[in-house]
Backbone:
């Protein structure tokens, strides 16, 4: 048994899947209420803590419902609310600059998210359930506001807004929206036609915070700190803290959580003097995330993210040619080296396609047939685009580098078309 920890993690994921299938994940703790029991188009008064926001909405966790008819209890009359197990999105009628971490009371019309009615259609209810969100309040109005706040999270949010503004100064509007999604995890302004074009051609994954971001940012910082003479432990801590702050700024998406978690495991191995194993780290992160939220197993983003790495770790070594004798110094040069690199890239792309194919068909009922070949063109350009984009966004005076990213993005669009 080469990877006992991976097998244990896989066993825990299977147990979580069985529990989810049996309905155990829907159990509500005593004294709590689920948003599934609430009536649509009903006015609610709720209180909660703001953990995320945008220009028009706030996201509340630790929600308490103040309503006289919930479960037949007179919560509103007694002044004691009923805690809810899910979070809520409140669509505010007026723009309110509310700091993250602040406790607020909001009143609005409750609207649950609907399930898909056709095969392959986006299932809003399942998607938001994986985010622990039970519904939204429309036409929400602020009724009360506390004084508490999260200084670090607020600082990261303000930094994100500043960096987004800089991107829109550097790039044209269409390319700025793509770079904002690519670097900051903000997909709100993406052009719907461009997003659909990327999706139909199988390259929508480039807009997610993924292992490429973590490798470029985390490993670059770690190696720089090592080169200036810092010991392994401080260098690993420095890179890890920076990535956690970056994850907090970009919203900790599913793929970001997986990638950052695997990076932390790798850094722990560096400190402990142990060899890093990608599949073991993948299994540990899968088990940890599913234990926290079993509904991830119904998320296409979660399954695609993990299956793509599984393809690189399991399928790609099988498709690659067996190792032969040690190549000479000149063997990797010229056409031979180029051909070997293209072959390895093709096998990696094919491996990801094979492992994600069942998930693509299950959720979307279609598969992009050109994605293997297209990714051979797209993926090699991702690293230079990321590096030049980060430099243009972060370093004053280097905005001219944005021209390189604009050319790459337009070439993506041309090839997809």
Residues:
């Amino acid at each position: 048994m080469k990877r006992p920890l991976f097998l244990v993690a896989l066993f825990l994921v299977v147990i979580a899947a069985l529990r989810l299938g049996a309905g155990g994940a829907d159990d509500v703790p005593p004294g709590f209420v689920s948003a599934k029991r609430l009536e649509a188009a009903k006015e609610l008064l709720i209180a909660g803590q703001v953990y995320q926001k945008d220009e028009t909405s706030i996201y509340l966790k630790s929600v308490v419902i103040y309503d006289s008819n919930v479960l037949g209890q007179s919560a509103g009359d007694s002044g004691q609310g009923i805690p809810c197990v899910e979070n809520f999105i409140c669509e505010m009628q007026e723009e309110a600059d509310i700091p993250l971490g602040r406790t607020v009371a909001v009143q609005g019309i409750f609207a649950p998210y609907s399930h898909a009615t056709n095969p392959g259609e986006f299932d809003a209810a399942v998607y938001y359930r994986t985010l622990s969100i039970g519904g939204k309040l429309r036409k929400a109005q602020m009724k009360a506001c506390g004084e508490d706040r999260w200084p670090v999270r607020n600082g990261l949010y303000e930094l994100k807004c500043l960096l987004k503004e800089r991107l829109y100064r550097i790039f044209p509007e269409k390319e700025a929206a793509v770079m904002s999604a690519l670097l900051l995890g903000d997909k709100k302004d993406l052009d719907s036609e461009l997003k659909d074009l990327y999706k139909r051609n199988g390259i929508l994954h480039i807009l997610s915070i993924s292992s490429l971001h973590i490798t470029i940012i985390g490993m670059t910082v770690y190696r720089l700190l090592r080169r200036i003479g810092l010991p392994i432990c401080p260098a690993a801590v420095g890179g890890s803290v920076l990535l956690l702050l970056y994850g907090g700024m970009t919203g900790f998406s599913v793929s970001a959580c997986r990638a950052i978690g695997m990076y932390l495991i790798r850094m722990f191995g560096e400190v402990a003097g142990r060899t890093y194993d990608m599949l073991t780290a993948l299994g540990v992160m899968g088990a940890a995330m599913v234990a926290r939220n079993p509904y991830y197993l119904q998320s296409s983003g979660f399954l695609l993210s993990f299956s793509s790495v599984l393809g690189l770790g399991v399928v790609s070594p099988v498709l690659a040619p067996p190792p032969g004798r040690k190549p000479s110094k000149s063997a990797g040069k010229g056409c031979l080296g180029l051909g070997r690199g293209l072959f390895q890239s093709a096998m990696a792309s094919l491996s990801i396609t094979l492992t994600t194919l069942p998930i693509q068909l299950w959720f979307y009922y279609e598969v992009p047939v050109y994605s293997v070949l297209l990714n051979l063109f797209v993926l090699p350009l991702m690293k230079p685009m990321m590096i030049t984009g980060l430099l243009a966004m972060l370093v004053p005076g280097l905005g001219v580098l944005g021209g390189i990213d604009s050319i790459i993005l337009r070439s993506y669009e041309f090839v997809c078309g």
Summary: DSSP finds 14 helices and six strands in the chain.
